[in-house]
Amino acid sequence: MSLHQSVLAGDRLALARLLTEIENDTPLGRNTLNSLFAHTGKAHLIGVTGAPGTGKSSLVNQLALYYRKPPNAAAPRRVAIVAVDPTSPFTGGAVLGDRIRMRELSGDAGVFIRSMATRGSLGGLAAATAGVVQALDAAGFEVIFIETVGSGQAEVEIAKLAHSTLVVDVPGLGDDVQAIKAGILEIADVLVLNKADRPGVEAAERALLGMLKLGHPTKRLIHHGQLMEDKLADVELAGLAEWVPPIRRTVATEGKGIPELAEAIQGHKLHLEKTGNWQRRDRARLQTELEDLLRSQLVAQWRRQVSEQAYQTVLDELLQRKLSPRQAVDALLNGRTAR
Amino acid sequence: MPEKKIRVLVAKPGLDGHDRGAKVIARALRDAGMEVIYTGLRQTPEMIAEAALQEDVDAVGLSILSGAHMALVPRVMQLLHDNGQDRVKVFLGGIIPDEDVPKLQSLGVAGIFGPGSSTQKIIEDIRNAVRQTA
């Protein structure tokens, strides 16, 4: 049986091997992904990002437990988790520790957890994360959590990959100027205020609410000077064009607030489906992937055509300040390299 | 193509709570350029084998100071075998009495490192063992 058939048949070891092949960007990995691609596009991809130590892994653990045992005897959903941690820029090594918080998921055949190192990628994900997610999608996981590295302000790649992005904040991380800066808060589809049993939770929620009022097109929702949020945001907004990210308080270590958070995520999914944004996001996501691939392929192709000597000559001239970087690119691309 | 990274699961099975050694090893392997999946304390053999499978690791490092190694290690080896992961090299660290060493080796344990082992030696042994199967 080929790797592709084994993965589709639910062989977990084959899936694990495939993920390694994808991470190492081997021909086997690429070919198998090609043949699996037709089976993708069914999973709900949920991104989880936020500063280090905000409790992303614990939240993913709790949400996965919730999806495995939903209330009201609903059918459990198969859950995959891709947890990304940073690679050391000096040694190329990494310690991947997200599983520590996910021990309760062990022994459940409906859950698959994979740790990934960034291997030099910036932006909070690894270069192979999109491929790994596709393989898990094809393997039939219905919900896929993608946990980014502990992110600062600019690691927003996750929003391009996921359907729904959770941004996790905790009380006491910064003042309200942090909240209006561009970047990570802007990509939130659901804002999670974790460790909500800590002091300062009211102030943190006020700062986030203030940011939402400024940053999102919410005017029609401001009523008596109050932003109408929470339940309204989930249910009634699902029919409107604009989504206002709801804020949910959680205490992940105790499982508090998890059903409400899952409900908000579901609300966002419904919203995407009703407004056609699901399709639109999918299209934008695939376009990003296409362009990234195109870019790297074009560079690699071009690099094979130009002689190492010509390349080094231009680099030398650059070093001697005879050419500016732009002129150097011009020289290389327009063939004025064989001087 | 990026070079093949060595992936190692570092786990502490059993009930003792002394994870300093495991953390030192995790850090040393990281500095040697390996990807270390660290799973923390009180792992059952089932949890270890499952993580080794999902993460598709090349090696598993077990740290045991509780004296329960003769119960835990054979179970881990058996589960790895059942999962089709005979390829995975198992290393053992902690307090292992000399008389148990031959028995553990006959089970297929690739290396046993007691107190005072140099991290350099551990790194080299893991590299060599993984290279043999690659």
Instruction: Give a count of the beta strands of chain B, DSSP E runs of length 2 or more.
Output: 5
Oligomer: heterodimer
> What is the CATH topology descriptor of chain A?
Rossmann fold
CATH homolog superfamily of chain A = P-loop containing nucleotide triphosphate hydrolases
- Estimate nothing, just give the exact number of structural domains of chain A: 1
Main sheet record of chain B: 5 strands, parallel
Q: Hey, roughly how much beta strand do the residues of chain B contain?
A: 15-25%
What is the general shape of chain A? globular
Helix content of chain B: 40-55%
Apparent shape of chain B: globular
Mean pLDDT of chain A: 86
- How is the main sheet of chain A built? 7 strands, parallel
List the helices and strands and how they pair.
The complex is a heterodimer of chains A (339) and B (134).
Chain A: H1 3-8, H2 12-23, H3 27-36, E1 44-50, H4 56-68, E2 79-85, E3 94-96, E4 111-117, H5 129-138, E5 143-147, H6 158-161, E6 164-169, H7 176-180, E7 190-193, H8 201-215, E8 222-223, E9 226-227, H9 231-235, E10 247-249, H10 258-275, H11 277-305, H12 308-319, H13 325-333
Parallel strand pairs in A: 1-5, 1-6, 2-4, 2-5, 6-7, 7-10
Antiparallel strand pairs in A: 8-9
Chain B: E1 7-11, H1 20-31, E2 35-38, H2 45-54, E3 59-64, H3 69-82, E4 89-94, H4 101-106, E5 111-113, H5 119-133
